[in-house]
TrEMBL record:
Any one GO BP annotation for this protein: transmembrane transport
Keywords of this entry: Cell membrane, Membrane, Transmembrane, Transmembrane helix, Transport
The UniProt record lists the keyword Magnesium: no
Localization terms from the record: Cell membrane
Pfam families the record matches: BPD_transp_1
Topology term for the membrane: Multi-pass membrane protein
Domain ABC transmembrane type-1: 75-265
Protein name as annotated: sn-glycerol-3-phosphate transport system permease protein UgpE
Provenance organism: Oceanispirochaeta crateris
Length: 280
């Protein structure tokens, strides 16, 4: 048996130590949030602070999140918005990337640059025109007002385009010889080969839509149509009573779905990010 004689340099050790501290800095706040969510209200701001609750774990804080406010309805609304927005933008982004990279036409690069320009425009700049458009369409205070803007994701087009460039054009030529038209080539040949790029784009857009607070704050008025970030905002009244535990319980509940989705597709996300940087 050949032993492992690899020698670690000072740089390797220094990088490992630095990464260890980065991981600790990321994990500790999450553990502190979870620990505080199980405390009684009087322990939320107690000094000196303790990492573990001194009293028995108060799991009732999680039940209070759903009894104090329509939190379950907020989760359902966010799931509906995220589901339709992510699904729609995956279709639109992948079709746009297919057209830009695999259908030769004059100005394709200009079209791509114009799409990328959308990344430079903050949401605050477009919120007034968006509000006016939704008002004219009579979609204010509806989930459709949040879904429609979520269908457009310039970064998704970029990632799809980068991945599409790594797929040889011979697949398109073979599909044309077999009699497949453009749509069938896209749907049956190219789209399945973009699975990793689809998943990484889905996760990134899911986090963006799921955590979006600004647009729902402007476009949604009724409690029954509020999304999860607005529901968490409604919990701020608990701070007046010193009950930070219920607020953090709500935060823990809100991060479970995106974390689960990310954990499910972690391998493909890494593959998608790697392939997205191969060609420019």
């Amino acid at each position: 048996m050949i032993g492992n004689n690899k020698r670690y340099t000072f740089t390797d050790i220094a990088v490992s130590i630095a990464l260890f501290f980065v991981v600790i800095m990321i994990i500790l706040p999450l553990l502190w949030m979870f620990s505080t969510s199980l405390r009684p209200a009087k322990e939320s701001f107690k000094l000196p602070p303790s990492f573990f609750p001194k009293a028995p774990f108060l799991w009732g804080n999680y039940a209070s999140v759903f009894t104090e406010l329509p939190f379950l309805r907020n989760i359902i609304n966010s799931s509906i918005v995220a589901g339709f927005a992510v699904s729609g933008q995956l279709l639109i982004s992948s079709m746009a990337a297919f057209a830009i990279t695999r259908i030769k036409f004059k100005g394709s690069e200009i079209v791509f640059i114009v799409i990328l320009a959308g990344l430079m425009i903050p949401a605050q700049v477009t919120i007034i025109p968006l509000f006016i458009v939704m008002r004219e369409l009579q979609l204010l205070d509806t989930l459709s007002a949040l879904i429609l803007p979520g269908l457009v994701y310039p970064l998704g087009v970029f990632l799809m385009r980068q991945h599409s460039l790594t797929i040889p054009m011979q697949y398109d030529e073979a599909a044309a010889i077999d009699g497949l038209n453009r749509f069938k080539t896209y749907f049956y040949i190219i789209l399945p080969m973009m699975k990793s790029a689809l998943l990484v784009t889905a996760v990134m857009h899911l986090l963006l839509v799921w955590n979006d607070f600004f647009r729902p704050l402007i476009l949604i008025n009724s409690v029954e149509n509020m999304t999860l970030p607005l529901g968490l905002f409604q919990l701020k009244g608990m701070m007046d009573n010193g009950n930070m535990s219920i607020i953090l319980a709500g935060v823990i509940v809100s991060i479970i779905p995106p974390l689960a989705f990310y954990g499910f597709g972690q391998k493909y996300i890494a593959m998608g990010l790697e392939s997205g940087g191969i060609k420019g």
